[in-house]
Specification:
The complex is a heterotrimer. By secondary structure, chain A is of the alpha/beta class. In chain A, 22% of the residues lie in helices and 24% in strands. The longest helix of chain A has 16 residues, at 12-27. The radius of gyration of chain A is 16 Å and the shape is globular. By secondary structure, chain B is α/β, with parallel strands linked by helices. Chain B has seven helices and twelve strands. In chain B, a hairpin with a 4-residue loop joins strand 8 and strand 9. The longest helix of chain B is centred in the last third of the chain and has 17 residues, at 281-297. The chains are: A alpha/beta, B alpha/beta, C alpha+beta.
């Protein structure tokens, strides 16, 4: 029996470890960091999106999903956070495998309060620092996208390969982040808990590996 | 308390009524959310709902909240004040963190994963596996030219730092150079002017394109800010009056002989003679040990 | 080098704490009972609760005992303790009209609806020492209590007395404007300055919360400046009341309000010079409001004066500048920072010395070159 507003597990240390993975990922974009084992999630709710939500969300902030009602309900129940429209959301939780139109509508902060820009969490298949082997018969959505990153946190440039991320999502992020310090910050989280942090300061080019 | 797991498996009433790392999870979440935004916007002061702690405001509660939000059972903690592990303020803070977490501590900068500091950056270059948490008394670099935080915030928003430049120029005209000794204003990622805390000029170059992540916490003023690794951090200076670090007139540390570290003047308690000692006690102690080793090896 | 002795820091702190304990006990007198503080030193307890922003007379009394009645330190202890307490409920709006009034006065009229009730006050006592208090014993206490309580004449028709607000009377007569309609969002959820960082201009609920937690002395200094002429608030106290307010919380399952308890509070409503209000009404009196934990009339009155001062559209005096006032009245922040100067600052001082030496050298060169300094 899960009580509203409480975590599914009494996992103070798990949350701390998860937070460090997010912090290190964001401070060093392109370095793949790792979340601990995810919490139990009911069928239809992405456990990694839930995991990140449990670290960062509570009754003080609002969030949106890309039309994922089950996720919205479960996250709202466990964290006490209020689901709202993207225009008013501090967080957006979504699968990254298809274009997420909602990113266009998220707040990017103001000149005086750039920190009011939202945070996007995109669930993908895999993230890796080296080019992964690709099965010849794999669908296009399984094609790893090579992303080259430069900016604060990166010594010269960093390369990562992300499987299950629609490149349109990177394009819209880049567009929304064109006017620093306004912007939207993002985390890409894989099924096995790999994290890539994409702060608004990062610049990226991408190439589709094939 | 033998281990963290043991601490957490105690029945609630036998625990010390405080959560792991003192802060409740809600408070940690607030600090964590704000830290992520601080890292995403280098040099920008992010307001946060700073909690009261059982240590007075002005005594490091901002840095402490960051450390408490970050720290985990696998971390190794070092706390210094003025470069010294045994300064009373450092001891006090370290005790609070250890009492509520059970984490291991060290005085050796190389072995620490989290270092909390007041007014100095360690002499030992810090690495990608480490985080340096700095205690901030006054986060606003513009406060001497604009006491209103409302107006200062607008200046930051517009990138309008002309009042600051005028102040620096007046210094140069009057005294031949900028007279700011500590809290030297720097420009981060070519955008925000930031107060690096009362570190001496000596430490300012360490901020530029470092391997380590710098996190800054002002508890009383309720602001967090950050400098990610490999970020440009430049002291404000004029082309023809460049930024200089402190000089010690050829003095050496009387304990380890170092000429390459920040030295504190002090007075021999017996003879009253003026001497110099490394401010970074760990650096000094390790140098002394290395020198002794060399001597015995010879 | 005592302050930063290698490996001496821990021992120095422990010894200092033992010495402080010794200073508290060395007289050999009987240890003070927490209950005695709670019952017989109520103004200190109330001040600590107000500045500590936690309604718990027991914890305030214990803090006063532990700190040897250092009010600033005690407030800090309560604040830190409150930080660790989980927040399970938020009360409904507490109506001061429901207050079980212990004391109620108004300076605006000689007689007011409900009447003037002096209550437990020493306002009119002569400030002469009562040396007999040195010999007060438990039997005197018992005797007095028996006599006073038994001799009390209780006249009641069963109903609680009602004290209508003077301001409401003035509103009905068109002399005071109705309170402006708050933005709906603020009405539902007052700003909580312990949960969200304060920015300026502050929402009204944030301003009042900051003042309610403010240092009595700090509020007094700023309010006094306004009364004395740095600004222009010459308040008439419409209502000053001290009493117990009921707090109710919503039952989590049944949704009905449930009594959580009674909180002693002091409320001040002051009337100040008239001005044309926003909108198209004619001139009206302006008002200020103050409310704080416990019995603290000075604080409530000063809060109300400052509330009114900060409503000036253009700040021409420090007390009218909301950012200036609210940034400097928090007792924990202000005392903490003032006292932090005791911490070692020798590295920054060393840096200052280096800069002074450079500047002196520069000045000496200029002089030698015959340039005017």
């Amino acid at each position: 029996m899960i009580s509203p507003g409480q975590g599914a597990r009494d996992d103070v240390l798990e949350t701390q470890a998860a937070f460090r993975a997010l912090l290190d990922g964001l401070a060093r974009p392109g370095t793949v960091t790792h979340l601990p084992a995810p919490p139990h999630a009911p069928t239809g709710v992405d456990p990694r999106l839930l995991q990140v939500a449990l670290v960062l969300l509570d009754a003080e902030v609002t969030f949106a999903t890309a039309g994922d009602g089950a996720l919205a309900r479960y996250v709202g129940l466990l964290t006490g956070s209020r689901v709202t429209v993207p225009e008013g959301a501090a967080f957006l939780l979504a699968s990254g495998s298809a274009p997420v139109a909602e990113i266009e509508a998220l707040p990017a902060g103001t000149a005086e309060c750039p920190e009011d820009g939202a945070t996007v969490v995109l669930a993908v298949r895999r993230c890796s620092p080296a080019r992964p082997a690709v099965r010849a018969a794999a669908a296009d959505s399984e094609a790893p996208v090579e992303v080259v990153l430069t900016g604060p946190g990166i010594e010269f440039e960093a390369k990562v390969w992300i499987t299950g991320l629609d490149p349109a999502n990177l394009a819209v992020l880049a567009r929304r982040n064109a006017e620093f310090p306004l912007g939207i910050d993002a985390f890409v989280v894989s099924e096995s808990g790999e994290v890539i942090g994409l702060p608004r300061t990062v610049c990226f080019a991408r190439r589709t590996a094939r | 308390m033998a281990s963290i797991r043991e601490f957490l498996t105690l029945p609630r009433d036998r625990q010390r009524r405080y959560n792991f790392a003192y802060l409740d999870e809600h408070s940690k979440r607030e600090v964590r959310r704000r830290l992520l935004k601080a890292v995403a916007i280098p040099g920008h002061q992010v307001p946060f709902a700073s909690r009261e702690l059982p240590i007075a405001r002005g005594w490091g509660t901002g840095g402490l909240q960051i450390t408490l939000a970050l720290i985990g059972p696998h971390d190794v903690l070092k706390v210094i004040d003025q470069g010294a592990d045994d300064s009373v303020n450092a001891v006090n803070l370290r005790q609070l963190i250890v009492r509520t977490t059970g984490v291991r501590t060290t005085t050796d900068t190389r072995h620490a994963t989290v270092v909390q500091t007041r007014h100095r950056i360690p002499e030992e270059p810090m690495t990608a596996d480490q985080v340096l948490v700095l205690q901030v008394p006054e986060p606003e670099p513009l406060r001497h030219v604009e006491p209103s935080t409302v107006r200062a915030r607008r200046m930051h928003a517009e990138g309008d730092y002309s009042a600051m430049w005028v102040r620096l120029y007046e210094d140069v005209v009057r005294w031949g150079e900028v007279t700011i000794s500590s809290q030297y204003p720097v420009r981060v990622h070519r955008r925000y002017v930031m107060d690096p805390t009362p570190i001496p000029r000596w430490d300012v170059p360490r901020l530029h394109r470092a391997e380590v992540l710098y996190l800054f916490g002002a508890g009383r003023e309720k602001r967090l800010y950050a400098v990610p690794p490999f970020t440009e951090v430049e002291p404000l200076a004029f082309d023809d009056v460049p930024f200089r670090v402190e000089e010690f007139g050829g003095a050496r540390c009387r304990r380890c002989g170092s000429e390459a570290s920040f030295l504190n003047a002090s007075f021999d308690p017996v003879t009253g003679a003026r001497t110099f000692v490394c401010s970074d006690t760990d650096y000094c102690t390790r140098r002394m040990a290395a020198l002794r080793f060399e001597e015995t090896a010879r | 080098m005592g302050y930063v002795a290698a490996r001496g820091g821990v021992e120095a702190i422990e010894q200092a704490q033992q010495l402080a304990r010794y200073f508290r006990l060395r007289g050999g007198s009987a240890p003070v009972d927490v209950r005695q503080i709670q019952e017989q030193l109520r103004f200190a307890v109330d001040r600590v609760m107000g500045e500590g922003s936690l309604y718990s007379p027991f914890h305030a009394a214990l803090a006063l005992k532990q700190t040897e009645s250092d009010v600033s330190e005690s407030a800090l202890m309560l604040r830190a303790f409150a930080s660790t307490c989980p927040r399970s409920h938020v009360s409904g709006v507490a109506r001061t009209a429901e207050m079980r009034v212990v004391r109620r006065i108004s300076a605006a009229f000689q007689e007011v609806p409900g009447g003037q009730m002096l209550g437990p006050t020493r306002d009119y006592a002569q400030r002469l020492f009562e040396f007999a208090l040195c010999d007060e014993r438990e039997e005197h206490v018992r005797e007095f209590l028996a006599q006073y309580v038994n001799g009390a004449r209780i006249e009641t028709d069963g109903a609680s007395p009602v004290f209508p607000k003077v301001l409401d009377v003035l509103r009905a007569e068109g002399m005071v404007a109705s309170p402006p309609r708050r933005a709906a969002a603020e009405a539902d959820r007052p700003f909580d300055i312990t949960r969200k960082a304060l920015t300026f201009p502050a929402p009204r609920s944030a301003r009042l919360q900051a003042l309610a937690r403010g240092d009595t002395g700090g509020l007094l200094a700023f309010a006094y400046s306004s009364m004395r002429g740095y600004g222009d608030v010459h308040p008439t106290i419409g209502d000053l009341r001290v009493g117990y307010m009921p707090l109710r919380v919503c039952h989590p399952e049944h949704g009905v309000p449930v009594m959580a308890g009674w909180v002693l509070a002091t409320e001040a409503e002051v009337i100040a010079r008239f001005a044309a209000p926003e909108g198209n009404g004619g001139p009206m009196f302006t008002v200020g409001y103050g409310l704080c934990f416990g019995h603290n009339e000075l604080k409530a009155i000063c809060m109300a004066v400052l509330d009114r001062a900060m409503n000036e559209p253009v700040a021409t005096a420090p007390a009218e500048n909301e950012e200036f006032v609210l940034s400097h009245v928090d007792p924990v922040e202000s005392s903490g920072f003032a006292l932090h100067y005791k911490l070692p600052h020798y590295v920054t001082f060393q840096a200052d010395v280096a800069r002074l030496q450079a500047a002196q050298l520069h000045a000496a060169h200029r002089k030698a070159d015959g340039v005017d300094s």
